[in-house]
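I am writing to request your help with a piece of structural work I have in hand. I am sending you one protein, given as its amino acid sequence and as whole-number tokens for its backbone shapes. Kindly check, if you would, that the fold set down in the tokens agrees with what the sequence suggests. You will find the record immediately after this paragraph:
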Amino acid sequence: MKIISLRLWLAVILLAALPLLAQETPSVPSALADQHLVKKETPEYPPLALVARISGAVVLELTISKEGKVTAVKNITGHPLLLPPASQAAKRRRYSPFLVGGQPTEVRTRVTVEFTLGGPGPNETRDEKITRSYVQQEAECRELLQKRRYPEAETSCSWLSELAAELPGNRELPQFASFEYLGHAAFGEQKFTEALGFYKQELAIAEASFPPTDVNLAYAYNDVARGLRGAGDLPQARAYYERAIHTVELADAPSLPAPQKRKNALFEKSVVREYAGVLRKSGDVAAADAADKKSAAIAVPEQKDN
């Protein structure tokens, strides 16, 4: 009887803890957080640090409430003399609300405060900060997708999409990639209609930016085909798989480097195999058998060690 009661008590405790375990505060890139900043105070340079000629960067992690108030500050790195003034100034910051899924949401972000002997201030331009944040966010987005942590990836990749729109210079390829990643995150959560919307945005950029022989265009056609297949539109999925196959065949130029030829062959083999599955599901068994044979016949160059 005592064992049963103990098990029941443990079960109640675990069930009560589940909502807390599931709620993880999303992290926002610092460059995007800066765009929400409505009030910022410059920290005072500690007199002792000035006398000792101590300078450098202080990195803090802020927790920002739904209302935009800083509710917690965590010291990450920085000289002990510089941490207190940087932390105190950070607590007085105010942000406009951060929206996730259209709802105000508590978020985390990191801020860097530079202390120089001439006074604290940033030492990188806005474009440099946006670019650095994009590179960091893309790595996080890709890692979450690879680990199949799709709900977290959806949030992370949505920040990536916003950063891509702010990048200096040519933004087409980063925006293309961000919509691709967002589509993969939604597809992984089986939100097929939402995934299809992202894949169509990816394709629109690809068709406007890449020549007909670019393999990136084939990737986009394939993604739209997968989105249509998930949404149950098999006739349209079939048409887009055919475009993907045709485009990757055009992209297979003799002058391509060996690693790219291998990558293209693996991609084409996979696309034709998926195409065969759609044909079979549509009832076109003969065409599906032919596609399976074509997939099996695609030669994949051996990978050469450098």
